Amino acid sequence: MTMECLKISLFVIVVAFHTSSTATILDSKGSTSLLPVTTSKESSVLRDILNQESLVRLSLVQRMQSLTMDEMDSRKKVDTLAESLKILTEKMQIIKAENQRLKDELTILKEAHLDLKEDVRQLKITQANDSSELLSFKKNYLDFSLFVNETIEQMRHDKNASDAQLLNFTSQVLSGNFLRIIFIKYL
């Protein structure tokens, strides 16, 4: 839009010079020439137009400087954003690598967990078998212990019976009845 204002002001200046009144002026040799003669009103208008053009040019220069500064700021911001994007991309690559490492570690841990589960299952089976075997041994021990106790009891009973017979025999021998019993038996 400022370029249009500049073109319009130049057009106005040209028109002002062409439409101004011309007068015949004699030079020092006496010849006449056509030179534009301007009145004070026209000079004032021309000065106003030139002042407006100067203001438009100054405004245009200020706007150009402002646009140039804005462009430089924008380039700095773009450079800063590009650098930030580069840093973020690098960080993202690092995070992706760390994420992959953790996924690999998780896979290894899951496999180890499955192996441990299998080991625990095998231990439970072994423990159940050992527990059954232990119960069987315990039952056998109790049966054996009962048998031993019964045998010892029978042996005590038999010993007591033997002791009683021996005592009876001893008392018969001492009383002399034994020889008579044997003698009677064999006769």
Topology:
Elements: H1 2-19, E1 22-26, E2 32-36, H2 40-175, H3 177-186
Helix pairs in contact: 1-2
Give an overview of the whole structure.
The protein has 187 residues and is mainly α. It has 3 helices and 2 strands; from the N terminus they run αββαα. It has helices at 2-19, 40-175, 177-186, and strands spanning 22-26, 32-36. It has a two-stranded antiparallel sheet with strand order 1-2. A hairpin with a 5-residue loop joins strand 1 and strand 2. The longest helix is centred in the middle third of the chain and has 136 residues, at 40-175. It starts with a helix and ends with a helix. Mean pLDDT is 79; it is low at 14-35.
Physical arrangement of strands within the biggest beta sheet = 1-2
Considering DSSP H and I runs of 4 or more, what fraction of the residues is helical? over 70%
Strand proportion, as a percent range, falls in: 5-15%
String of helices and strands: HEEHH
- Tally of contiguous helical segments: 3
Largest β-sheet summary: 2 strands, antiparallel
The Cα radius of gyration reads 68 Å
What is the SS-derived class?
mainly alpha
Strands, count:
2
Mean pLDDT: 79
Question: What does the overall shape look like?
Answer: rod-shaped
TL;DR of this structure?
This protein is mainly α and 187 residues long. It contains three helices and two strands, in the order αββαα.
